[in-house]
Amino acid sequence: MKKTYLILLLMALTLSSCFDDLDDSPATTQDINDFVYRGMNIFYLYKYNVQELETNLSQTSNYNSYLNSYSSPETFFESLIYQRETVDKFSWITNNYIALEQQLNSGTNLSNGLEFNFYYEPGSNTNVFAIIRLVLNNSEASSQGLQRGQIIHAVNGTELTANNISSLFNQNNYTLNFADYNDNGTPENNDDFIEPNNTSVSLSKTVYTENPVYKTEIIDVNGENLGYLAYNSFTPDFNTQLNNAFATFQANNVQHLVLDLRYNPGGSVNSATLLGSMVTGQFNSDVFAKLNYNADLQANNTVYNFSNSFNGTSINNLNLDKVYVLTSGSSASASEMIINSLQSYIDVVQIGSSTTGKSQASITIYDSPDYLSRSEANPTHTYAMQPLVAITVNTNDEQVPSTGLTPNIEVIEDPKNYGVLGHENEPLLAAAIADILGTGRTAPSSFEKAKPISTRINLSPFEDNMHISPEDIK
């Protein structure tokens, strides 16, 4: 255990309530608020930007009154967040760490298997339509034959607006009412409209575990093999499946690689390091990325190195010196880390639209003596926190800008032509193939600037993050 963390941990143990005296009584709000404060006071990346944390109120006489001034752990946690709207958009607290662990480690949550993009209807700034962007494999949606690119104008018969899409789509059971996109026979989009087609499908969300290795393809490009991988989350339990995908690429002598991360909101830093190692292979033991903690935890700063193995298994690497990465505004965290870290070593061509802009990593904080041990967590409640605790940078100490990573080739998904993921005519993949062939791009459609409305609807409760394991901070 690193020296700085040990000193802070001893302080925490000295100041914390005695775990030996726990009984079966449920934890009070004050108890949980106390855990929240002490955990944030040690680990929070922006500790010294928050006055209540910087001054360590736990050592003051009015500490209990301070804790009791907040009626819930959620509101108390929120009071400790630094500039929620502009800086820390991503820390969160949960009252169910079991569900949190299932999502972070194995990709398990409630889902019907659909993800959406949302757009304003042509000529409107209130009415909205949804497009299915992903139908997850082996899900209820896939069993009902739903397909990427289908348009929804209403849910349970209620027309979609900017104000109701969250409440309608976050239900566990609903009926989708479908429509067609009518371009009115003209190339302009100002006279287009969404036309209901009187078809519908009812869906229910169930417990679902997503294999993030969504799709792989081998495509012949002028006599050379291109490997295509749609990868939707950096989920540790599926690292073997990711490695198996690269075994297929190896066996087919893939000379070009397209990573489709357009719907990947992030995940495990370790999984991202493995993916970077699979793409390359010639940089074994070199620095892939670094984690930098708050001023009190600098001795815990961590380096992630390219590797040729994991868990005793050889990594299937391609030794490439160039890779194409497809992105959108939904690409975040570990997805951005892949681009930022690899571009220090090889040519990375980013195609699509700008990414989210998130370089911070989080860790699960439990109400346990060392705040990292799930097995020793306080049994009287299931609260845990996932605060930002570190900044990720590449080997040159460059972090992802808060405005996101800008593509080398901009292609924004067109509601009139989503295409089939992995098909050579799908617009983003087609742009990569055109760049390989040196033929350039076709002219953009008239709808190219119609970016999706930003929503949280596609995200399960614990996505949109980059997380690390306790071993990385000990």
Automatic annotation (TrEMBL):
The keyword Signal applies. Transmembrane segments: none annotated. Residues 196-412 form the Tail specific protease domain. The keyword S-adenosyl-L-methionine does not apply. Keywords: Signal. SMART domains: TSPc. One of its GO terms (biological process) is proteolysis. Pfam families: Pept_S41_N, Peptidase_S41. Residues 1-19 form the signal peptide. One of its GO terms (cellular component) is outer membrane-bounded periplasmic space. InterPro entries: ClpP/crotonase-like_dom_sf, PDZ_sf, Pept_S41_N, Tail-specific_protease. One of its GO terms (molecular function) is serine-type peptidase activity. SUPFAM superfamilies: ClpP/crotonase, PDZ domain-like. This is S41 family peptidase.
